[in-house]
Amino acid sequence: MVENLLLSLESLRANKMRSFLTMLGIIIGISSVIAIISVGNALTASVTSQFAELGINNVTLGIQARSDGAASYDPNSVKVPKDSDRLSTAQIETLMQKFPEIETLSLSDEAGRGKARLGRKTSSVSLTGVNFGYAQANKVNLVRGRYIREADIEAARSVVVVSDRTAEAIYGSIDSAIGSRIVIYTEKAIKEFTVIGVYQYVQSGVQGVTAPGSELETGAYIPVSRAKKDMPYKNFMSLTVIPRAGTDLTLFTEKLSAYLGELYANNKEWEGYAYNMKSELESTNSVMNSLSLAIAAIAGIALLVGGIGVMNIMLVSVTERTHEIGVRKALGAQDSHIRLQFVAEAVMLSVMGGLIGIVLGLGLGFAGSALVGAPFELPVYVILGTVMFSMFIGIFFGYYPANKAARLNPIDALRYE
Prior knowledge:
The chain has helices at 2-14, 16-54, 89-98, 134-137, 150-155, 164-171, 174-177, 224-228, 249-263, 277-299, 301-320, 322-330, 335-372, 380-406, 410-415, and strands spanning 59-65, 102-106, 108-118, 121-130, 142-145, 159-163, 181-186, 190-199, 217-223, 238-243, 270-276. It is α+β, with helices and mostly antiparallel strands. The chain has 2 domains: 2-50 and 284-415, no CATH class; 59-276, no CATH class. Strands 3, 4, 5, 6, 7, 8 and 9 form a 7-stranded mixed beta sheet that branches. A hairpin with a 2-residue loop joins strand 3 (108-118) and strand 4. Helix 2 (16-54) crosses helix 13 and helix 13 runs antiparallel to helix 14. It is elongated, with a radius of gyration of 34 Å.
């Protein structure tokens, strides 16, 4: 076997360009498959990370207009629910009591955008009315002071939690912000608050990138009851439920959906809904994996072409070395020896092409992952699988030429010039 491998290497060295062109199809096929799978895995990991930022195990409840079965969408016919159609505080409290699986709820409502101002210093902020559970659902990391409490909500206090970016822009430091007054100029009003906490601002992938030259806008959180004082409606269109650890998310979502269905059974215009992002993530990952496999399968056609190239060159090699085969047979070489020699040469061609393809594919995978801004991921079994597949191609496409060589009549082979 070692002798056959050495003979194969010698044959490849003697015909470098021909060997390289033969391996080219395998190199392209292997590198394409590895690059596509690695970039697909990187994108899947990136999407999973972004879903995790949004709370993959949380359940969103809300109301939506009942479908009338219309085939077309008219933007002018968008309906706005009345306050009586929305989820009231009493209904939300009943929901908490009815489902022991709920750990906490996250309530929020947009309260306007504007500028926090102190003298000539300004910072763009987006005011959001929140409850205590909002911090857990949205992973708000407090670095100074305290977060909004139930007492703040019950009393509708004018307190605010700002980002570290806003605190530094307005007051010069995070510590100076705690206990200070802050004035926020929104589109419709001027609002004054006391800063009770500062959180660490982290720009996530779902927030996008701030345009060059534009001022960074960060969130400022106030008690949801304080935000509702300036709004025409007091109830909620949606909320987020954080279930307890160990809860069956699918079953829990179905129970919440059924409960909302009963709650809005007599409402002719609006209906309740419940969904979780875990099912959306699974669907998204399934589509991405299917797409990656489909593209990889198309790239795999190059492997078939490469295998045919190996068979073609081995048939040429058998023809060129017919006299050599005759000499070996005349000296006592058996059919199995001849067959093994040519199969080994075909496997050597395929494996070398596969190894070059793996290196090239890893490089393309790294480059592609960096381009999409996702970490490089490639399971070891993919690399091992490509090596084994390369060997299979060599054996499968090399066997016919090797068998043809083994079955040559030694007398006819010796006469061949």
